[in-house]
Every structure is written in structure tokens, then in C-alpha cells.
Specification:
Layout: E1 3-8, H1 15-20, E2 33-38, H2 40-65, E3 82-84, H3 91-98, H4 104-115, E4 127-129
Antiparallel strand pairs: 1-2, 3-4
Helix pairs in contact: 3-4
């Protein structure tokens, strides 16, 4: 650390010693006192250390106080609508048919994320789930209809 200790001898005389002391007598000295003084760098180091300790304590407190996710084992009754892939269909053509006014790239990204599709590996007869907002569309089927 960057701390400086300055040792200065302090001479203390009692009233009796002052009265009896002559000019040539040695002064009665007690143990030297030290003065502890931090440099600017030392204050910065201690300030940073205090900041880290307080931030750590707050993080630990927040971790214990935060409510955790609780699974209750209940099954979801929500079912996604599906699109039955026809011969020659691609994700792009399905996305364009589902939402003609939107950018097909966004819809394709949602379908890929929902079905965890890697690449364009669609085959005729596959049923792929589409986002819930397309439920009731003329291009979708209910899960019970599959």
C-alpha cells in the first residue's frame, strides 16, 4: 500500500520534571508517537477497495433477495398453430404467405427459432409450428388437426 508513517519523538515532561530540570539535563522521553498519513494513491486504493466491498455486499444481498423461478409442474394448454409443408415450399414462401406485408426475414427467423431448424431442411409433409399471432390464418392448422 502507499502509506507513509512519520515517526517524530515527542518529549513529555511532567510538572515535577519541569521544575527540577536544569538546562543541561536530558529530557525524559516517552515512546515516540507515529502519525499515519495516506498519500493520494493510498486514498484512491482504499476508496476503490471500499467500493468493491460495498458492491459485492449489494450483489450478494440482491442474489438472496431475488425471487427464483418456480415450476409447478402444470402443463401448458397453449398450442401453436402449424403449417403443413407442401412440395416446393420454402421457409421464405411460407413466411411470405403468412404475413405478406412484413419482411419475410423476420418471420423466417421466428419460425427457425421456434422449431429449432438448422438450415433449410424442409421436406414435404413436415408440420412446422408458427408464432401464435398466425393462429386462425387460412394457411395454418390447429395442433389437433394434425
Amino acid at each position: 500500500m502507499t502509506a507513509t508513517a512519520i515517526v517524530t519523538p515527542v518529549i513529555r515532561r511532567t510538572d515535577a520534571a519541569r521544575a527540577n530540570a536544569s538546562v543541561g539535563d536530558a529530557a525524559v522521553a516517552t515512546a515516540p508517537q507515529t502519525r499515519f498519513r495516506l498519500t493520494r494513491r493510498g486514498r484512491v486504493v482504499f476508496g476503490g477497495l471500499a467500493t468493491v466491498l460495498v458492491a459485492g455486499a449489494l450483489a450478494i444481498g440482491a442474489a438472496f433477495a431475488a425471487p427464483g423461478a418456480v415450476a409447478n409442474g402444470a402443463e401448458s394448454t397453449q398450442e401453436f398453430p402449424y403449417v403443413l409443408v407442401q412440395a416446393g415450399d420454402s421457409l421464405w414462401s411460407i413466411a411470405s404467405a403468412l404475413e405478406p406485408g412484413a419482411d419475410p426475414r423476420d418471420v423466417v427467423a421466428e419460425i427457425v427459432r421456434l422449431n429449432q431448424i438448422d438450415g433449410a431442411s424442409l421436406q414435404a409433409g413436415d408440420a412446422i409450428a408458427v408464432p401464435l399471432r398466425f393462429e386462425g390464418s387460412e394457411h395454418t392448422l390447429a395442433a389437433s388437426a394434425l
